[in-house]
Amino acid sequence: MRVIFLGPPGSGKGTQAKRLQGVHHIPQISTGDLLRQAVRDDSALGREVKEFMDAGRLVADHLVIELLLERIQQPDCERGFILDGFPRTVTQAKALEQALADRNMPIDAVISFSIELTELVERLVGRRVCPRSHGEWHVRFNPPRVPGRCDVCGEPLIQREDDQEDRIRTRMKAYSRDTEPLIGFYSQRGLLTRIDALGAMEDIAAQIEQRFSVAP
Predict the structure, then answer these.
(1) Could you read off the pLDDT of 151-178 as tens digits, one per residue?
(2) Beta carbons of 110 and 186 less than 8 angstroms apart
(3) Which of 20, 201, 193, 178 lies closest to 112, judged by CA?
(4) Of 101, 102, 133, 207, which is most buried by a Cβ count within 10 Å?
(5) Is 88 among the residues known to form the active site?
(6) Domains of the chain: which residue ranges?
(7) Is 160 a catalytic residue?
């Protein structure tokens, strides 16, 4: 099954994509990871990507799609894949749709994670991460055993700069402008299912499983 996860930062789509990957053995594909790996590999595509990154510009859509097409033709994608973080705009969605149609690999489903802005702000503002990458916690929903300290290494937990409230609201404005139109785009194609992203991880996972059976 080929699936796209849509949702604003902090909506939980990345967490659910990883869960789906583990349960159904279809890879989660993050375009950010693909871009960084291409640069590390110093491939021809990676060098083009690096030029955009070094200039502080968004990587051209055709390069991102080319990287995606390379990735989804690998053996672990034979049963399907989950696209997390792409497309971000209707223009990208149309280009991706055409590229996949040319390869007879259409998207089967799009899951949209819906969450109110106030809840999203609370989720992200309260998030704390280990500076040594041992994990993340939340001051309310998933507090560490010792307040303010990593459960693994004991280091003081930090708040990411992107998790400041003013930055969250700025990111949400960009999401509403660029990405929310995708909901209408995929709804018109009969692919969209909305998921209530408010609640326990297990409840959200149950919503996804209830609506979609990921075929082997």
Answers:
(1) 999 999 999 888 888 888 888 888 888 8
(2) yes
(3) 193
(4) 207
(5) yes
(6) 2-115+179-211
(7) yes
